[in-house]
Design a protein that fits this description.
Layout lengths: L14 H4 L4 H7 L8 E4 L3 E7 L5 E7 L6 H12 L10 E7 L2 E7 L6 H6 L7 H20 L5 E2 L8 E3 L5 E3 L6 E2 L7 E2 L12 H6 L1 E2 L1 H17 L14 H4 L14 H6 L5 H17 L10 H16 L2
Antiparallel strand pairs: 1-2, 2-3, 3-5, 4-5, 6-9, 7-8, 10-11
Helix pairs in contact: 5-7, 5-11, 7-10, 10-11
Family: Belongs to the protein kinase superfamily.
Keywords: ATP-binding, Cell membrane, Glycoprotein, Kinase, Leucine-rich repeat, Membrane, Nucleotide-binding, Phosphoprotein, Receptor, Repeat, Serine/threonine-protein kinase, Signal, Transferase, Transmembrane, Transmembrane helix
Pfam family, one: Pkinase
Length: about 325
């Protein structure tokens, strides 16, 4: 398929080093960073929709330089993104940087975040769409963990950081707290654990130990959230009860009690095959989120198992 008139740099993650877009151009492209163009906010930044002078729509991530850690976050994201390229990672087109302003210009994801699709009233993901999205995320993390000279740990896998393109293909974004490890994937310690409550692996939250297993844990929580539509921070989880302890109570015979009611209401989800699909998915989520990092499976195994679950489902 012939590409539209897009500058060559759009397709290259190395463009972050080669093409600069001026602050003035970004001002024009976002209508002075008008609130109507605001797509979302993160720990250190705000993301705006922007239309460049050549008509290309992009997303502009603007750092809040008043916040402690913002520049470190920007540098971490640049370091990761200049070395990675995968269809399930958000591509960086360019950067804009001066003394008072820092921004990344990234490909625009017209379907928004997974958070929106899971929790907004007017949106719905069917069973196959949910499986496909989780396969996309698994492939992105597999690439980061196993296809780099030094494994990359995302450190903040959650619905807000999974973005969907026009074809509902998922892309993992926001590498502001990512870590690049040594080639042997030996855990590194950091003084302050960053991440999102509910998704943080126990050893990362309590000791600041970072390894690829941290992402596997977060992925397991996200996988269970995806099919139960229950956030790990849901108010029902109090005291000792958490998403990871609540879900196994239903296995294997009461699985439909924890599955997202929207999936049951809108699809024929009560067939034995569908029920077995849910059981297999929840079991996979539990294998990812085991308490001890050495007991968790790898993202390679996750991607393979999820693909197998999908193929079985399609045969029904």
């Amino acid at each position: 398929m012939e590409k539209k008139n897009i500058p060559a740099s759009v397709d290259s993650l190395h463009a972050i080093e080669h093409r600069m877009i001026s602050y003035y151009e970004l001002l024009q492209a976002t209508n002075n960073f008008h609130h109507e163009n605001l797509l979302g906010t993160g720990s250190f930044s705000s993301v705006y929709k922007a239309t460049l002078s050549d008509g290309i729509i992009v997303a502009v991530k603007v750092l809040d330089l008043q916040l402690e850690g913002a520049i470190k976050s920007f540098d971490a994201e640049c370091q990761v993104l200049r070395n990675v390229r995968h269809r399930n990672l958000v591509k960086v087109i360019s950067s804009c940087s001066n003394l008072d302003f820092r921004a990344l210009v990234m490909e625009y994801m017209p379907q928004g975040s997974l958070e929106k699709w899971l929790y907004s009233q007017n949106y719905f993901l069917n069973l196959l769409q949910r499986i496909n999205i989780m396969i996309d995320v698994a492939l992105a993390l597999e690439y980061l963990h196993h296809n780099q000279s030094g494994p990359v740990v995302h450190c903040d896998v959650k619905p807000n950081n999974v973005l969907l393109d026009e074809d509902m293909v998922a892309h993992v974004g926001d590498f502001g707290i990512a870590k690049i490890l040594s080639a042997n994937d030996k855990p590194v310690a950091q003084t302050k654990a960053l991440g999102s409550i509910g998704y943080i692996a126990p050893e990362y939250g309590s000791e600041g130990r970072v390894s690829t297993s941290c992402d596997v844990y977060s992925y397991g929580i996200l996988l269970m959230e995806m099919f139960t539509r229950k956030k790990p921070t849901n108010e029902m989880f109090a005291g000792e009860l958490c998403l990871r302890k609540w879900v196994p109570m239903s296995l294997p015979t009461e699985i439909m009690e924890v599955v997202d009611k929207n999936l049951i209401d809108r699809e024929e989800s009560d067939s034995p095959m569908k029920q077995q699909t849910f059981v297999s998915i929840i079991e996979l989520g539990l294998d990812c989120s085991r308490e001890l990092p050495e007991e968790r499976i790898t993202m390679k195994e996750v991607a393979a198992r999820l693909d197998k679950i999908k193929k079985k489902l399609l045969l029904t």
